[in-house]
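COURSE: Structural Biology Practicum
ASSIGNMENT: Worksheet 4, Part C
STUDENT ID: 0417
INSTRUCTIONS: Below are two proteins. For each, the amino acid sequence is given first, followed by its structure token string. Answer the questions at the end about the second protein only.

PROTEIN I
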Amino acid sequence: ITKDNVTIQVDTVLFFQITDPKLYAYGVEQPMAAIENLTATTLRNLIGDLELDQSLTSRDIINAKMRAILDEATDPWGIKVNRVELKNIMPPREIQDAMEKQMKAERERREAILQAEGQKQSQILVAEGEKQSLVLRAEAAKEAKLLEAEAQAQAILKVQQAQADALKVLNDASPSDPVIKLKALEAFQAAANGKATKIIIPSEIQSLAGLAAGLQGVLKQDEPAAK
């Protein structure tokens, strides 16, 4: 009977040798029966100090304690106990059924944990994949915007460079003041052809515009004479 009041059946194997035939013959009556009784008593005492779970998992400890106790007790009988083995420990049938159910429940619990861990890892991998995809798309959009900005900057630089080159050519040609004013008048004429509703013309260009209008009138008067 274990410490938690469970009756179990234990099969024990005992290995011994006779060291003194005289003591074996006269030290105790019926030595074999004495060894069996001593073994049963010792085993009962050891099992009584352990609970069922401890009895099932502490065979090596029980074997060592039994060998030491039996060897000391049988020494006056001319017997030396070399080894003790618990061959089998059998709880009652209902206890075995309960243990089997417990083991089955434990296996199912571990299986559920493994499945949950697998699903967790799968979800983590999916989330990591989506994260990487979002990062890659964001990086691609960023690169596209950077390329577009660089292209616009290059275009602006080229326009400014062209304007600078035109000004340089104009400065190198050393144009006269009337030519510059005439170019300005052409620019304002182009602006007037657009959708602008009000144009402010500097005074120096206004005088040039009057001169151009006068020349145009003279040309119109000369046309009939030419005909």
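PROTEIN II
(use this one for the questions)
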Amino acid sequence: MNADETIRRHLMDLAARAYSRNIVVYSDFLDLHELHILQCLPIESMGASLSLSGGYEAAERQMAAFLPDALIFEADFPMDCVSIAPMQEKYAEPLTHRDYLGALMHIGIERSCLGDILMDGTKAYVFCVRKMTPVILNEISRVRHTSVKTFLERPETIPAPKYKEVSGTVSSVRLDSVAALAFGLSRNRTVPYIEGGSVYVNGRQILSNGYALQEGDRISVRGVGKCQYLGMRRQSKKGKQWIDLLRYI
């Protein structure tokens, strides 16, 4: 059995459990590829519905809630957000996303138990499954050589994702053209990401360079970044289209 089939069976088992036991069942955090597999499954035909959340708008890693259709259920995702910051920022090293992730995995936390990590300067906001919250609060005291403090955040204290507005012209609203503009790449450099299975639109893997985007679509490119296509502003006399994007930073 290959890895994708193992993921499919696991997700189908979660949906079947929700239906048979008439309870809400949650997955751990799913990455882009796992979310793509999930969205291709016939969940509704199994008597369950699906809800996704990563803790904030535009989250890349998300938990899935499988809800039985027999009754009205509301998903209460078992996740928290823990902030980690240097004890004395003045003397802190220039800590990165990679540094924080490495520190968390070093204490034995699996990647599937961690959602996105939002950076705000040298401070990190870590989304995690709730069972890992006390582990992070009690066991993370140092990242690299920097002493850190941890704090359980309330939803209203979590900062909104930062983004940069990007505008420019494209010959058409094709995935390769729009992604190239969003991430400052040539179309020739963008194509291998698409054909290599590293590009997702609204959580679905897209392998076609000419895929036509719709206003509001979210594009994620593994190892590069994510953006949202806001739409076309105007069209030039030569047929070029001026479009607007938000690139998350």
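ANSWER KEY EXCERPT:
Q1: The mean pLDDT is 93.
Q2: The first strand starts at residue 25 and ends at 30.
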